[in-house]
Every structure is written in C-alpha cells, then in structure tokens.
C-alpha cells in the first residue's frame, strides 16, 4: 500500500497565486472518521481562501515498514516518501482522535521518525476529536508540546470537535465551523506568503 493517499492533487481554482501544499497526517485508524470529517471542513474552508493542493497520510495504513521501524534508516521507501511529504508541506494538518487522554501511539510514532528540524517554523494546524469537550485538553497538553519540540509554527487556534458535533462523520456544529473560519482567517496571509514567497500586498 502506498504511503500518501492523495485527496486533491490539483490546485483549486482561485484568483492568483501558487497553490499551498497542504499535507494531512491522519492519526485515526479509519480513513473515514469523525477526525477526517473535521479535517474535510478545514480543507473546504481553506479552499475558499486560497489555492491549495492536498495530500493525506494515513498512519495506520503505512504497513510493517512503518510499524517495525525504530529509526529513520529502518523505514521502507514508501514510508520515507510519506515522511518527506510531511516535512516538505507548506502547511501540515496534524489530526487525531483522543485515545486514553492523548493522541494515539501510531500518530506519535510517525513524528518520532520525522527529522528533528524538518518542521522548524512550519505552520501546523492542530485538530482533534473526542467523546466529550474535556478531551479538548489534548490539543494543548499533548499535541502543542509535541510540535513545540520541533520548533514548528503551530497555528494559535486549534480545532476540536466532540462526538455530539457530528451526524456520522459529517460535522454539523456551527460553533466548530466558526472556530475553523476564525483560525484560518487569522493566518491566511501567512499561508499565502508560504505558498508564493511573496508578502501579501495588503499586509
């Protein structure tokens, strides 16, 4: 099984600019899940702001070349390609369900194999889902410190949705939709600059 699964390989039609390369690291065991339902809304919202190209890495489906690797040198070429995809993104979306008070071990294992300085100053959007709102603490107590180690530029507004916010895997809660819009609007000029290398004329 190939490492990255492409969600949207072509840039979305939008006025002006090079497409932002967005890579989703999916920490859910399922490709279709509430976690990915949340990410879909993030991507749809972002598409309305600037051109993007999206790719997705399902960590639970990377196979034994990933799960059996202790160090970067141990991974298979397919897993190496997935790691490089994440390291070379303009925007990384790190998304995971809460499992026993933290992100899943498989999600953490992926970042254990990422080069220490590969994410330095890289915009990272944190997203998580859980059974109740108290699980939202995983964003600040587990996920943000993980990316602080990498010296990543974590987006200030992290996104959480609980099980009651969904109909199946479709996010319905307008409050969460609003938080996504606010969080992305706060950094859209930065993201546009990352994609084009040119500061926004209005900034």
Q: How many β-strand runs?
A: 9
Radius of gyration: 16 Å
Assign a percent range to the helix content. 25-40%
Determine the N-to-C terminus distance: 44 Å
Runs with pLDDT <50, length 5+?
6-16
Work out the helix count.
6
Order of helices and strands: EEHEHHEHEHEEEEH
User: SS-based structural class?
Assistant: alpha/beta
Averaging pLDDT over every residue, what do you get? 91
The rough form would be described as globular
Strand-residue proportion: 15-25%
Largest sheet: 7 strands, mixed
Task: Characterise this structure.
It is a single chain. By secondary structure, the chain is an alpha/beta fold. The protein contains 6 helices and 9 strands; from the N terminus they run E-E-H-E-H-H-E-H-E-H-E-E-E-E-H. It has helices at residues 34-47, 64-67, 77-87, 105-112, 137-149, 174-196; strands at residues 4-8, 20-26, 52-58, 91-97, 123-130, 153-154, 159-162, 166-167, 170-171. Strands 1, 2, 3, 4, 5, 6 and 7 form a 7-stranded mixed sheet that branches. Strands 8-9 form a two-stranded antiparallel sheet. Helix 1 (34-47) packs across helix 6.
Supply database-style keywords:
about 200 residues, alpha/beta, seven-stranded mixed β-sheet, two-stranded antiparallel ribbon, about 35% helix, globular
Concise synopsis of the structure shown:
By secondary structure, the chain is of the alpha/beta class. Helices cover 36% and strands 22% of the residues. The strands form 2 sheets. Strands 1, 2, 3, 4, 5, 6 and 7 form a 7-stranded mixed sheet that branches.
């Amino acid at each position: 099984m190939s490492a990255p699964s492409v969600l949207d390989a072509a840039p979305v039609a939008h006025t002006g600019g090079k497409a932002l390369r967005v890579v989703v690291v999916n920490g859910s065991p399922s490709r279709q899940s509430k976690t990915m339902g949340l990410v879909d809304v993030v991507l749809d919202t972002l598409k309305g702001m600037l051109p993007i190209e999206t790719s997705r890495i399902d960590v639970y489906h990377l196979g034994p070349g990933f799960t059996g690797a202790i160090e970067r040198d141990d991974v298979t070429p397919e897993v190496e390609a997935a790691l490089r995809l994440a390291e070379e993104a303009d925007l990384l979306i790190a998304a995971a369900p809460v499992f026993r008070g933290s992100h899943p071990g498989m999600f953490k294992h992926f970042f254990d194999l990422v080069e220490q300085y590969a994410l330095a100053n890289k915009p990272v959007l944190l997203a998580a889902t859980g059974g109740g709102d108290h699980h939202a603490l995983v964003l600040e107590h587990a996920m943000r410190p993980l990316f602080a180690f990498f010296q990543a530029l974590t987006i200030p507004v992290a996104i959480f949705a609980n099980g009651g916010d969904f109909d199946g895997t479709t996010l319905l809660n307008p409050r969460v939709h609003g938080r996504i819009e606010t969080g992305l609007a706060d950094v859209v000029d930065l993201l546009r600059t990352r994609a084009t290398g040119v500061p926004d004329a209005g900034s």
